[in-house]
Amino acid sequence: MSKSPVVIEIPLACSDELAAVELLEQLRWGDNPGCVHCGSVDVYKMVDAKTGERNKRFLWRCHDCHRQYTVRIGTVYEESRIPLRHWCYAFWRAATSKKGVAALEIMRQCQISYKSALFLMNRIRFAMAPDNPEAEKLSGTVEVDETYVGGKPRYRHQYGLGRATRKTPVFAAVGRKGRIRRRVIADVTGKTLKAAIRELVDSQSRIISDDFSSYMGIGKEFPGGHHTVAHGTGEYVRGDIHTNTVESSFAILKRGIMGIYHNVSRQYLHRYLWRFDFMWNLRGMNDGERTVAAIRAAEGRRLRYKVA
Ligand SMILES: [Zn+2]
Prior knowledge:
Elements: H1 3-13, H2 17-29, E1 43-45, E2 60-62, E3 68-69, H3 84-96, H4 103-110, H5 114-127, E4 141-149, E5 168-175, E6 180-184, H6 190-200, E7 206-210, E8 226-229, H7 244-259, H8 269-281, H9 287-298
Parallel strand pairs: 4-7, 7-8
Antiparallel strand pairs: 1-2, 2-3, 4-5, 5-6
């Protein structure tokens, strides 16, 4: 795919329906549009008999199976009648705002209902979810840490089961090579945190954490070793042993959750983690490339989609 023309088209696709349709068609089919029903490439764009312009519904028709379709078929867009320019705008905002974008803002800017805006943003967050979590373990030197989202963690280590707090514990593993994986956890006990590390981090990795007791003993399972910084006694960096990367990832997450969304309930927090992890993992891309990556991730997800 040629990247730059697509990037230039995105702002236009946010305001013009034909431009939005053609952008999504280009991203989906490139220069070889095929029938979504039978796969034939003997297809054509239907035109309005009077004006000679493209059919109002942007229909395609197949010469082989004689069926009609649009670029929405088989994608997340199929379930809604929301104009595709609003989808493009929401993708653009979601993939370019560091702190996130609230459904209320999309509602105002696109002049759509709150329900539609919420629908858009939920599906876009889903598109940003990791594709194949099992195959994406972190490797190399990996910082791990946990935090509470929803306010100041007053009883961080005393209340391992999270009893005295309504804040939600979140675990993060960040590879120094650049990728992050986060998840909502039930509590911050050793059992839970070690299970999260095993699940998200390759066993050949080198683990770095602070001196929280729940991480003690994890080194036995990781031949690359487990190194700690003693935050309890004021030590924050020793050579390359520090947890600054993972802490900065939590700072960005909290600024977004509290600043833009004000708060997020435990039930839905994982969807926001998808979004913030997507931004972190693709931060080397420019805004246009990241928007395209999100749009591409949304393709073909209709059948797999469930509101988790
Ligand atoms: Zn066909």
